[in-house]
Structures are given as structure tokens and as C-alpha cells.
Amino acid sequence: MPVNDYEITIGLEVHCQIRTETKMFCSCRAGFGYEPNTNVCPTCLGMPGALPMLNERAIERTILAGILLGSRIPEESKWDRKNYFYPDMPKNYQTSQLDLPLCIGGAVPLYTWAFPAHSKVSTAQDGVVRRVKLDHIHLEEDAAKLTHYAGYSLIDYNRGGTPLMEIVSAPDLHSPDEAYAYLKSLQQIMVCAGISNADMEKGEMRCDVNISLRPRGRQQLGEKIEMKNINSMSAARRALLYEIRRQAEELDAGIAQVQSTRRWDDALGESIVMRTKENAHDYRYHTCPDLVPIHTAPLMQRAMINMPELPDVRRTRLMQEYGLPSSDATTLVGDAPLCTYFEQTVQAGAPARKAANWVINTLSSVLTEKDAALSDSPIHPVDLASIIAIVEQGIVSTNQAREVLDYMWQHPGMPAQVAADALGYKKADSGALEAIVDAVLAENQDIVEMVRSGNAKLVNALTGKVMKNATPKPNPKIVTEMIIARIGG
Length: 489
Ligand SMILES: [Zn+2]
Hints:
Layout: E1 6-17, H1 56-68, E2 76-77, E3 80-83, E4 93-96, E5 103-104, E6 107-111, E7 128-141, E8 145-149, E9 152-156, E10 163-169, H2 176-192, E11 205-215, E12 225-230, H3 233-252, E13 260-265, E14 270-276, E15 286-287, E16 294-295, H4 297-303, H5 311-322, H6 326-333, H7 336-347, H8 352-370, H9 381-392, H10 398-410, H11 416-422, H12 430-443, H13 445-452, H14 459-469, H15 476-488
Parallel strand pairs: 12-13
Antiparallel strand pairs: 1-10, 1-11, 2-16, 3-4, 3-15, 5-7, 6-7, 7-10, 8-9, 11-12, 13-14
Helix pairs in contact: 1-4, 2-3, 5-6, 7-8, 7-9, 9-10, 12-14, 12-15, 14-15
The protein binds zinc ion (ZN).
């Protein structure tokens, strides 16, 4: 039967590394990009007798995620050991949470702008298409990173022990596009709230997907197939599209599905069975004897100081407070640091819509061109506001301002006015400029006549001639205005 006759049920388990200075159970530095095996100690290397020490900040951030997503925070939460034998976990157990996680229930909003470009979604006023139910959120430690090569494997214990939040959805998603939107919305929430950098390319956010099909109208869910460690949103979507087709074809042919774990090979574009229910892991969970249960009340109070805005709330505020069009507001909330930069530029005195335009278009393209991150930019919000100010005052044109920005990039801390002076851009002495305009008009009567008889485009030719004769270089927009005023009058 056609794929449409099957009801699709998808659940996602998302792992997010929490943004903290140190690891979950020791004081080793957490973070990406260090020399392998340099941020390690007896605790995170699982030496016998080494005891864990709790990272309160990681617990508080997890509780904050739960509060933001509407979860219930139980009064007490506890730690459990998940036993398994593998080199990425030298203790032979992972400290995790089984039956008393930090956050229970809640929901992840699917934002209209988080869906893939081709999908048609409702244009909900508040930006939320619907909310996908969560089962729970728990906290655990990340495993070390294994990299496999032909014939050998390398291991980096720096990642071992990094605070890792696991956000487990209910089986409440119904299409690969929804799964994509869920991941993107969740990522934006995590970044916006400063809980995780959630960069999937760096492995800071990873996801396991599970999917089952059942004939439409049947009560009981179909057998669940799980695919682990998918490392991009588009790969998750591709894996689900493939599984829907594969499972539907098999069900059509009368082949019953068996609960199993498959590996998604994104390069090959297919999934391969890894293990079935019969040989599933038995983790023999038990309560961790080294860690006391967490009393959540004080940490909840701390998490609620300076509650961050969710992206949808921030987007509505950007439109109301600054009068931004929804497209600009959507772009800005999609990049939380850029959005903060925009707000700081406005606070430094720039008109909001102009600031949004500069931040979204000019600054972003300069960063791409220079292959720099926003945090590396020597142009701070106050600098950008000063550039916008000299454009507003007519001292430089928009194009000239772009050169001013480049000049300031090379001379960090230089005020825009000083950079404009150095480049020879000054607000023209209007008397001298008027004289040049008059001279150019007198010398080019033929062009002036053509402009008068309706060939408006030729004004640019006159502007060009004035620009050529004038030093310092005036703002071409002002020159054009002067010419039009003269010719018109
Ligand atoms: Zn350590």
C-alpha cells in the first residue's frame, strides 16, 4: 500500500553538551579543540578509588532547560550507574540518571522558520507551529571520543566526563520534516539560553532517532527501529526518509519488523542493521553509591534568576520593540550571538532597522569574507553604531562606509570618524561642493537637457563627474540630491 497509508511515529533522543568551564564530576576543563588527552585526571580516567565531585552549574543549566521547556522539576533527583564495557568509558559504567531524572515532561516548540525550506508550514503568528511532548531530560557524563582508522583506533579522553544533557521526546513526531524542525528549534533554544553551543559539527549536539510505521487507524505502535549518533539535521531527515521507504516496502511484502538498532551511513544513504532486541545491552542500572541525591529547590531558584527569553518570545519582542520586519527578526533569533550584537548596536545609538540591515547583511558578509567568528570581530557594536552614524550624517555613503569598516578592522579601536578622515572622506564644504556642481552642470549642458527631458538615469553620469573633481570625496547621495535640486530648479 502507498506510504501515505502508514502512520509514522518518530521519537528523538538528543544529547547536548552543557556549556560549563569544567567536567561533570571533576575539575578538569571541558571544551572542544584541546590537545588530545590533556584535560584528564584520575576521576575522569576512571582510576580505582577516585571519587566524583558534582558540577552544580551543569545541574542548574539542565534544570533551566527543563523550566524553559515547561518540564516538571521533581524535588529530588538521583544518579544511577549504567554498566557497560567499552574503551570510551574506562570506569566501565557511565554515571547517568534512570528513574529520577532532573526534568519530567514538557514540550519543544516547532518554530515556523525551523522547517526545511521546501516544506509548507502554517504561518502561526507567534511562530510556533505546535509543541512536541517531551518524556524527560536527564543529565549524564559524555564518553571519550574514539576515532577509528584502518586497523587501529585512537581515543581522546578530553571529552570523557563532559556534562551531557539527554533530551528525550515522546513518540510525538510524525514526519522527517518535523524531526528536522524539532532539532533546529531545540538547537536555537539551547544557544539562545546559553545552555549549550549545540554545534552538531563539533559533536556538541548529537541525536538518536527512532521510528515505527503502522497501518493508519491501528492502535498499537509498530516495532521501533533506532538509529544512533546522527550528527546533522539533514542527515536525520535523510535517515528517516530512507527508513520510511524501507519499512513500508518490507511491511507491504509481509516482512514483520523487529525492534532493532541500525546504523545510518549518510555517505551511502542507507541503514544497516547492527543489533536486534535479542542481543540488546543489559546495562544493569543501579543507584550510584558515590553520589547523594540532588535537592533541586535551591538550584531551581538560582536557574530562575535572569531567565533567558525563548527564541519565539525574543522574535516577537524584536518586532514590537524595534519595529523590525518578521524576516529580519527571524534571521536574528536564528543566530543568538548576532542578535545580541544587534541589540547592543541599537543601545549604542544606531536606528534599529538600519542596525538590523548592517548586522544581517554587511557584518555577516564581512565575517564570511574574512572567515572570522563574530567573537573575533574587532568591530564592536559601539563601532558599528559609529559607522552607521557617519552614514546618517551624510559624511560617507553606504559604499564608503564599508571601506571605513574595513579600515577600522585593520585598526581596532579607531573611531569611525577618524577612519573616514584617514580615507579622505569628509563631509564636503557645501560651498566648495556647490561650485563644483555648478561647473560640471555648465560644462555638460547636453546631459542636463537630456535629464530634463526625462532621461533620469543620466544624473548618475553627472554625479560621477562631480565625484571625480571633488576632494575630499563627498557622499555621492548628497551630490545627486544637489544636482537634482539644481536641474529641477
Ligand atoms: Zn577529570
